[in-house]
Design brief:
By secondary structure, the protein is an alpha+beta fold. The protein has 3 helices and 4 strands, in the order βαβαββα. It has helices spanning 17-26, 40-44, 75-89, and strands spanning 5-7, 33-35, 52-56, 62-67.
């Protein structure tokens, strides 16, 4: 299983690589993050909202999506975490 973040900026300052790197460090992220400054991936997913979460299985099929913020321990975050665990176990 591989987690890949896709960063599509909402604001101009979010397009700057050093700003993105600072946030990655602040939040102690260790997975690869694709920078989607031209919105190509965003458009391909027909996305319209920040933040959005998409989980794909090993075949590349979309198996779960969530739109909106989550916070550690809330119901939305727990549901997302459970879906990730399901994907890991179905390996």
């Amino acid at each position: 299983m591989q987690i890949i973040g896709v960063h599509t900026p909402e604001f101009e300052h979010e397009k700057i690589r050093s700003n993105i790197e600072a946030k990655v460090k602040k939040f102690k992220l260790h997975h690869p993050i694709m920078i989607d400054n031209d919105f190509s991936y965003w458009k391909r997913l027909n996305n319209r909202y920040w933040p959005s979460y998409y989980l794909f299985d090993q075949k590349g099929q979309l198996v779960y999506s969530h739109i909106g913020e989550t916070h550690k321990g809330d119901n939305k975050a727990v549901a997302l975490e459970n879906k990730v665990k399901q994907l890991i176990l179905s390996k």
